[in-house]
Amino acid sequence: MPTLNSKWRYLFMLLGVQLIVMALLSREAYQKRVSYFFRIFRKLDVPSGITGSGGAHGTNHTGADVYANLSQLVQAPNKEDMHYCPVKSPLLSGPIHISFPSGLTLSQVERKNPMVVRGGRYRPPDCEARHRTAIVIPHRNREQHLKYLLYYLHPFLQRQQLSYGIYIIHQAGDYTFNRAKLMNIGFREALREEEWDCLYFHDVDLIPEDDRNTYICDKNPKHAAIAMDKFGYKSVWTVHITQLRLPYKGYFGGVSALSPLHYLKMNGFPNNYWGWGGEDDDIGIRVSLAGMSISRPSLRIGRYKMIKHKLDEGNEVNPKRFSLLAKTQQTWKLDGMNSVEYELVSREYLPLYTNITVNIGTMHGLRPPTSKPEPKERAENRPGR
Question: pTM for the complete prediction?
């Protein structure tokens, strides 16, 4: 039979264990584990109107439905008498609920966005937009990511009362991916169709999490994707500098905005970065060399959720990226918008976006893509007005 001293000893040991457990739970890593434990028992939320089991890519359970109240928008009876939209849209709600359900289809996205017309164009139905923004998305073999992005991006932009168009710049063939060159092409092809005030260059795997992060241009080039869940919503350029030990704060990747004047002043983006890495840093240096600075939203508003994925085949790490970066000061005026070469394969005005397929060749010059589809551009397929 235990003595009185033994009972006190057991009591102190129990209290000690409890204190240790409490200390451990206060640490961030254990908080995440506890949060994950409770999410197991929580029913997965999916966007309204979408069926299918999700969770493969993670879920943000906070924030509002991005489609809330948009169904109440109606066309003004007399377009000629429409006034300008408010400086600050009354449709903004702040943080957005993000989830990635499996089984999402483009047809479902199309039904959720009845006011988007052919070519991925939209204009506010009840007021005259103050801003015209083109979204340029370099793309290859990311169809599932594209569905998620379109599902959230269309209502996100509609809440901001923008006149906008979405351009997918698709690289034909199986050659090494060149993201920056595709963005140069997107700039040229978008401005051939309309005098856009602002162009947003947008990675397909990044979903904006706050509709107050307005997709309009500033006086300076803007880096919009300042905080990502992948980095615990810390400043992305701070993480980038720490990881790569770069001596500057010019990172310009993920989602960035430039006016046509900004873009031409810095000679656009480099064309010689084949594979993953380096071009965002080159672009940041170009902004500085052109006498401009980079603006950014606050960490609270410039948040993005990244869709998890592996490095694509044909987009391997670029082994030449650091040597190319070292030469940016000598090459930026020669390599960029003024030297981009490509072949237009097709232009398709689809219900949710304009798809522009191009052959950009290789670092050795233009070559035919592996399979060249028939041109699909027709007069009746011009984007709706």
Answer: 0.78
